[in-house]
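Sanity check record (used in CI):
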Amino acid sequence: MNDHIVKKSVENKVFENGTIDGYTVAAIDGTKFFGSNKKSCPACLKNTKGQKTHCFHSGAVMSTVGNGPKLVIGFEMYKPGQDPSSKDEGELNVGKRLISSILKRHKKLIDVVVYDALACNSVWINHCRNLGIDTVVRAKNNNNKSLRFIKKKTNKSVEVEVWEDEREFEKVEVYESTFTMDNVEQPLRFVKSS
Ligand SMILES: [Zn+2]
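Expected output for Transposase IS4-like domain-containing protein:
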């Protein structure tokens, strides 16, 4: 049903002008859909604390962000561990599966995908590059050497832009630099706001 809604929105040119500055921007986040201490099924994820096992279902969801309707583009469920000793699937893996399947179904719908700090690594960035899509991720604290270095360098730089609201209640200074991350071929842009 959701796929049909997305297809119809594309047909009706809902996102023709993009959602932010002419780009169609979508964001991914993980969420828990259902959980129980009593009911369970074979596809449940499990969280055991002492004697109690909590059974639940989680997934990663992608939605457009910015101007216009916030349309859910797709979702992907976490897969449970194959046996009691193996771990349930991690969120980054689910996110990768989600964006791959969405781009297969809705070609050219999304220009930029936004994700939180758990995607601040070469695995995610290369995955998006290979799919031909731009990505914005939140920088993780002290994630790696190159990030620590670029944070310091950017802190000493001059602002490239100042965003101000009409009544000057709020003022945001924007700083940026370019850097390279291990295992990522292309240079990346680091943006920081005050
Ligand atoms: Zn279940």
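Residues 91-105 form the longest helix (15 residues). If this sentence no longer matches the regenerated tokens, the check is flagged for review.
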